[in-house]
């Protein structure tokens, strides 16, 4: 499954940083700013969010990552982007992030 490959590779901060840089564009700029607000480098922040996703995501979350990846020429980057966008959304965070921030 694509999410497992994302978790295996992007749980490492240097790989996660390179992946965020590969996504590029406005996403990478916005993500870098959010990482700075969290007092982390973009790779460390992405790796932390991926690890939290791996620890707390449910089947619905995994399905959404798979759908995002299935509709892309670059499935791993698309799946990673989905995870990171969900985790850093200005709207209500996904349940797996709420559990992570409240020690659940």
- Count the E strands: 0
Oligomeric category:
single chain
- Number of domain modules: 1
Task: Name the shape in a single word.
Answer: globular
Radius of gyration, in angstroms, nearest whole number: 12 Å
What is the CA–CA distance across the termini?
25 Å
Structural class: mainly alpha
Number of helices: 7
Mean pLDDT: 87
Helix coverage percent: over 70%
Note the main sheet.
Answer: none
Following the backbone from N to C, one meets helices and strands in this order, namely: HHHHHHH
Q: How much of the polypeptide forms β-strand, as a percent range?
A: under 5%
The low-confidence parts are none
Written description of the protein model:
- The structure is a single chain.
- With 104 residues, the chain is mostly helical.
- Helix content is 78%, strand content 0%.
- It has seven helices and no strands.
- It has helices at residues 2-10, 13-23, 25-37, 42-56, 59-70, 75-88, 95-101.
- α1 (2-10) crosses α4 (42-56), α3 (25-37) crosses α4 (42-56) and α4 packs across α6.
- The chain is globular, with a radius of gyration of 12 Å.
